[in-house]
């Protein structure tokens, strides 16, 4: 499967964003690409594939917990949080070395995931459980 088109659209949507949450929002396309590329691995179990697909579907869904159509780029914070949670789960099973083979981002993946989870959790507060539940991950 080729998810390049959505990656490009996502990158275009957030490229011009400058604001308080710019650093977190800017990771959305790279996290999407990572999850799409990891899906190609034969080392994943069906549960892991479902969790990855749920995170990718959430990112694509127009009306999730914090919709982009209403909140603009701020609406990607919940998407980044969910993707980071799934990547963190994958890292706990396979290690960051496995994931870094698929990572196209410029920064250290483990640092990115820790930063995204910490910062997004602070911003989202109690909504984190709602986001996980909405995506079917809780």
From TrEMBL:
It holds the Pfam family DUF1232. It comes from Methanothermobacter marburgensis (strain ATCC BAA-927 / DSM 2133 / JCM 14651 / NBRC 100331 / OCM 82 / Marburg) (Methanobacterium thermoautotrophicum). Its main location: membrane. This is DUF1232 domain-containing protein. GO terms for cellular component: endomembrane system. The keyword Transmembrane applies. InterPro entries: DUF1232. It is found in: Endomembrane system. Residues 49-84 form the DUF1232 domain. It is a multi-pass membrane protein. Keywords: Membrane, Transmembrane, Transmembrane helix. Signal peptide: none annotated.
């Amino acid at each position: 499967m080729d998810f390049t088109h959505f990656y490009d659209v996502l990158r275009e949507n957030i490229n011009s964003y400058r604001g308080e949450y710019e650093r977190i929002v800017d990771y959305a396309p790279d996290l999407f690409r990572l999850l799409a590329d990891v899906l190609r691995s034969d080392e994943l179990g069906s549960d892991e594939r479902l969790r990855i697909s749920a995170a990718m579907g959430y990112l694509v869904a127009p009306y999730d917990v914090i919709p982009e159509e209403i909140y603009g780029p701020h609406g990607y914070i919940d998407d980044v949080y969910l993707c980071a949670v799934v990547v963190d789960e994958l890292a706990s099973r396979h290690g960051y070395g496995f994931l870094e083979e698929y990572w196209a981002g410029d920064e250290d993946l483990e640092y990115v995931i820790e930063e995204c989870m910490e910062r997004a959790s602070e911003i989202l507060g109690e909504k984190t459980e709602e986001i996980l539940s909405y995506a079917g991950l809780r």
